[in-house]
């Protein structure tokens, strides 16, 4: 438990920016990646907008071999491999040689539903008695651990290579799992992250639940409105985020750059009891998760100065702010700065936590707190708890010290991670 863990690499494939530089520029300027999708309109969706990373074929070819590209029909695999490989390279790490894996490095890369387009294609082939046309990589693209398997083979990691899945909490939970493995001395480096497929077969169920905004099809960039009084539901998104976690000793030995320190974290569930349900969080569990994360990190409530919330642009945003306020025992101008990345990228589902962890950590490099898009009309219940100055509309200059990042997922599951500005002790 005395092993210090730091972040030495980041990678991202987001609707408003593929690659760190593009993603940072969009976050800094408040640029949205949410667009209208004719395919959704043709299929009769009520919500015809979404956040989807734009990937050219030439860019894809720089990450995959021709053999890997043959029959590749999983957007989640593409996003995850790109983000994970970029994070590894950003950390200054190379691929293991072909004869021996890197026994000290592992991967925990989560997902929600992987390769659904490939699965649909496979079902039709099987039903038409064309099983032989499935191709040799259909299994890898449709198994949940396919993304970690792809990355494990590309990078040559010989430690634990696995996946996790906990709905919208997946990415944040994965960071905590990687932290714990390094803390325990079982690994020196862990590539952690998450991805999510894009497309109608992922987003259709949410549209059927009528929890997506259907009145912004002509104005997609204004649709995702976290903390707003006019929030009308979350905008579906997709993509991937990735972080390289490393023991401080390993990072210092090789002279790696350090984004921040990972102090601690916590996961729990509300058990779908009390006010908690499959789709709604149990407030007591959310507050316990936040407090357990602070305890694990050895941080006092008063030390948190920036929060990146889950904040999905639904009626639950005000309740989330109340939970933060009660857990931290802070309100008004004493409340930390808080932002939501979802105003610019939508809700990237299983990829949300990892994409938002990358966004949170980029604030350390630049000495800023990113602004909140589309919340000019902050919900009145939120303004009862938080002074308007703590909800920046535009990017502001502020060097974060302690950032709390939380994600809350379907199934009443919660995850909270605590990052700290890196300083030698």
Automatic annotation (TrEMBL):
Record-stated family: Belongs to the thiolase-like superfamily. Beta-ketoacyl-ACP synthases family.
UniProt keyword Acyltransferase, yes or no: yes
Pfam family, one: ketoacyl-synt
Group of enzyme by EC: transferase
UniProt keywords, alphabetically: Acyltransferase, Cytoplasm, Transferase
Catalytically driven reaction(s): a fatty acyl-[ACP] + malonyl-[ACP] + H(+) = a 3-oxoacyl-[ACP] + holo-[ACP] + CO2; (3Z)-decenoyl-[ACP] + malonyl-[ACP] + H(+) = 3-oxo-(5Z)-dodecenoyl-[ACP] + holo-[ACP] + CO2
Complex formation: Homodimer.
PANTHER family per the UniProt record, alphabetical: 3-OXOACYL-[ACYL-CARRIER-PROTEIN] SYNTHASE 1 (PTHR11712:SF306), POLYKETIDE SYNTHASE-RELATED (PTHR11712)
Primary residence: cytoplasm
Source domain of life: Bacteria
Record's protein name: 3-oxoacyl-[acyl-carrier-protein] synthase 1
Ketosynthase family 3 (KS3) domain location: 2-421
Keyword Cytoplasm: yes
Compartment(s): Cytoplasm
Enzyme Commission number(s): 2.3.1.41
InterPro entries named in the record: Beta-ketoacyl_synthase, Ketoacyl_synth_C, Ketoacyl_synth_N, PKS_Beta-ketoAc_synthase_dom, Thiolase-like
């Amino acid at each position: 438990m005395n092993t210090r863990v730091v972040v030495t690499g980041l990678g991202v494939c987001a609707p408003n920016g593929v690659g760190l530089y593009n993603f940072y520029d969009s976050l800094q300027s408040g640029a949205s990646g949410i667009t209208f999708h004719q395919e959704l309109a043709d299929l009769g969706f009520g919500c015809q907008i979404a956040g989807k990373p734009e990937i050219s074929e030439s860019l894809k070819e720089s990450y995959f071999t021709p053999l890997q590209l043959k029959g590749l029909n999983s957007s989640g695999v593409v996003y995850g491999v790109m983000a994970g490989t970029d994070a590894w390279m950003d950390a200054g790490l190379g691929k293991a040689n072909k004869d021996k894996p890197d026994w000290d490095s592992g991967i925990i890369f989560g997902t929600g539903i992987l390769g659904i387009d490939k699965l649909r294609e496979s079902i039709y082939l099987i039903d038409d008695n064309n099983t032989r046309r499935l191709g040799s990589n259909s299994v890898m693209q449709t198994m949940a651990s396919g993304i970690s398997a792809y990355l494990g083979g590309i990078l040559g990691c010989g430690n634990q290579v696995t996946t996790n899945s906990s709905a919208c909490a997946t990415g944040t939970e994965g960071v905590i799992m990687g932290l714990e493995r390094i803390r325990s001395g079982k690994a020196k480096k862990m590539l952690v992250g998450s991805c999510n497929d894009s497309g109608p077969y992922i987003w259709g169920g949410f549209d059927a639940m009528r929890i997506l905004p259907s009145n912004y099809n002509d104005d997609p960039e204004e649709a995702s409105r976290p903390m707003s009084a006019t929030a009308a539901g979350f905008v579906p998104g997709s993509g991937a985020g990735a972080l390289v976690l490393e023991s401080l000793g390993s990072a210092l030995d090789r002279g790696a750059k350090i984004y921040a320190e990972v102090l601690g974290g916590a996961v729990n569930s509300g058990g779908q009891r009390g006010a908690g349900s499959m789709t709604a969080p149990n407030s007591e569990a959310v507050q316990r998760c936040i407090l357990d994360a602070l305890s694990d990190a050895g941080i006092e409530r008063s030390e948190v100065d920036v929060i990146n919330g889950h904040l999905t642009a639904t009626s639950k945003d005000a309740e989330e702010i109340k939970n933060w306020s009660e857990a931290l025992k802070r309100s008004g101008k004493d409340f930390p700065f808080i932002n939501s990345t979802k105003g610019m990228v939508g809700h990237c589902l299983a990829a949300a936590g990892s994409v938002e962890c990358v966004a949170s950590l980029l604030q350390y490099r630049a000495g800023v707190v990113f602004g909140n898009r589309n919340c000019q009309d902050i919900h009145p219940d939120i303004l009862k708890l938080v002074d308007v100055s703590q909800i920046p509309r535009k990017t502001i200059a502020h060097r974060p010290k302690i950032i709390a990042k939380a994600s809350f997922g379907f199934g009443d599951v919660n995850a909270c991670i605590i990052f700290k500005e890196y300083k030698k002790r």
